[in-house]
Amino acid sequence: MAKAIQIFRTGGPEVLEYVDVEVGDPGPGEARVRQAACGLNYIDVYFRTGLYPLPLPAGIGMEGAGIIESVGPDVTHLKAGDRVAYAGRPTGAYADVRVMPASILVRVPEAIGLETAAAMMLQGMTVEYLFRRTFPLRGGETILFHAAAGGVGLIACQWARALGVTMIGTVGSDEKGALAKAHGCTHVINYNTENFVERVKEITNGAGVPVVYDSIGVDTFFKSLDCLSPLGMMVSYGSASGPVPPFSLNELGSRGSLFVTRPTLFTYAAKRDSLESMAAELFGMVESGKVKIEINQRYALADAASAHRDLEARKTTGSTILIP
To answer: What pTM does this model have?
Structure first.
């Protein structure tokens, strides 16, 4: 029997159960993967709590890396023995072995370890689409990025530096601010001790920024709009503090004809050629040394509940992985 984390009801970390599961052979379009590690991401909390509904019981987790044990009869782009990684649906990454769609698996270069790959796919490809597709950065821009010391944030700090972008990052403590600066964030704002709207205006001499990348949600959304320059874009890609409530479109007009988008990685990576190009750019940044993936927390798969508690308490920095 294989082991996996499943939820039979929604709620707090205590609903994560470590159970035995039957894992069969892969069918058409599928591959069986023995996982070296799986990634922990805030989206997992959304599924666990029911903010993003799942039919129950359900597996949880969106990201992992391992070695293919076997493939279905019509899978031609992968074979047994390939080192692979993924980020995407269906949920169920919190497992030691799983059968999953081969279409979301990409080969991992030999220079990148499987634990690193498990820690980087969702967060790294998120930065790729944010910086290269949603609001393409060309270098020279000044941007505001919330949660700069988190898993996505630390990758963003490094990627922004590599692109020649001035990044203003918000953090929750001076220690996290030092971490973000060490990774390339130009300016850090501790939102617990500073007014980030005032500081952004001060840093930009009143001009504001052309883009805000915000994964926090309700706590920062409207203040983030106040940080934008006219015709600026608000990129709301997460809801760590809760979902943004309905609001009047006049809020955008009165602040300077602003744009708002709510992107997801899974839309940007839905087509195979897009997935491969996004993964290739991420792998290239890591192989070049411009972006280093820092695994700052490791938990046993059986201890997934503890990992969720620490994530929600904002005790984690960088990337976190679960080891089967």
So the answer is: 0.88
